[in-house]
Model the fold of this input.
Amino acid sequence: MIEIHNVQKAFDGNPVLRGITCTFETGKCNLLLGGSGTGKSVLLQCIVGLMKPDIGSITFDGTVFTNNKVGVRQEIRRKIGMLFQGSALFDSMTVFENTEFPLKMLTPEMTKEERRDRVEFCLKRVGLENAGNKMPSEISGGMKKRVGIARAIAPNCTYLFCDEPNSGLDPLTSIKIDELIHEITHEYNITTVIITHDMNSVVEIGEHIIFLHKGLKLWDGNKDEILNAQVPELKEFIFSNSLVRAAKRVDDEGGLEAILAETQPQG
Amino acid sequence: MVKTFGEFLLFLQSMLTRKERFKVLFQRTLDEAVLIGVDSVFIVAIVSAFIGAVTCVQIAYNLTNPLIPKSTIGYMVREMTILELAPTITSIVLAGKVGSSIAGGLGTMRITEQVSALEVMGINSASYLVLPRIVASMLMFPLLVILAMALSILGGYLAGTLSGAMSAQEYIEGIRTDFIPYNIVFALIKAVVFAFLVSAISAYKGFFTQGGALEVGAASTGAVTNSIIAILLADFVLANVLL
Done:
């Protein structure tokens, strides 16, 4: 479980995070939802330690991360796996080497054979067992995301962070990536935090959703509650998606047949 | 200016705190040594051989006094090569090739979040990415400078003898006259200092790139410009201090 308490961050006097307090639960896909510029990425960077919050604390399973000793932070970081928006694969390494990299760096006690077995397992888990020898430039965007996931889970991470895992992907591949993240979260009982503004992801894997708006947490709940949330900013955000609007209308007006009957020409 | 210099020093310090395992850094240094050293042999060979040749021809052209022995040409080629041309020109060439490569490579890694990926894994990205490049440069620059010295003197020999400016015997007699071994040491010290300046400045420029492809290009250009200025300043200081 990751606990965020009163995290604040400003750039040149402009507040980006204005006292965020929330909890990311273990064994669930926790979604950080919000429009562009609402502070989702900054919050994520504060959580993983790429930025330091001005005020507030971040706790990983009871261990304080913010302002703790370098060794403690280092220990927590080694339990973190992250899927970056652009995948952030190392250009000079093959898919296999990319997946093996954290094992080589973080677990020197592993033998070469153990590493190979683990990499092969992870690549198979994400459906890329035959792509090990390919370079990142030779694979598609969806495959890159899969390699990113394989690299993140290779060292048995406890916390998985995904920064817009669906960006730049077609809807079908997006759903597959969402499903993969969801499966992995439950399979390994890890704490997964996903930044998204994709309503498909909300509907598919939103077990715990936190909505951010202008650096504030305005709502949290799950995918079953979100359509009935009474927060104007959240409603505006959700129903800006035409598919969600249509689905809501179908639901409210007694099913698709009723709407079609209503729109039939009379006489 | 002072702030940038302070940031540069902090950057160098961050490289040395929380270092990665020796085995990892050693392997990375070897990889970088190949990229920095072996891949630069061709350009260094071409440049130094021609500089030696041109130096020889031009000295011969200016040395018209019949009282001055022809062997003086060989002597002057040797002195100019060892003291200045081989270490300084080679380092300036390498600032263009290696410096832009370091800045461009690190800049691209930064803007594509590869540096962040290392940091999230708990790896000291400065230590992992920059330290091996600096150490490899400091190992390979002196070797390339030695190669440049040899080829430059050889270039002078070929140009001098083939153009008929002097005989082979006169040239060899010239390059053996009043040889001071310390000059070689001085040249190698210069090579090590220049290597540090080129690699550290380029790494700093690349490591803190922000933005996109345009900024990566700007970082590479800035790395080369600043490295060359630093080489020339250091050259002057070292000449005053060590000679």
Summary: The first strand of chain A starts at residue 2 and ends at 11.
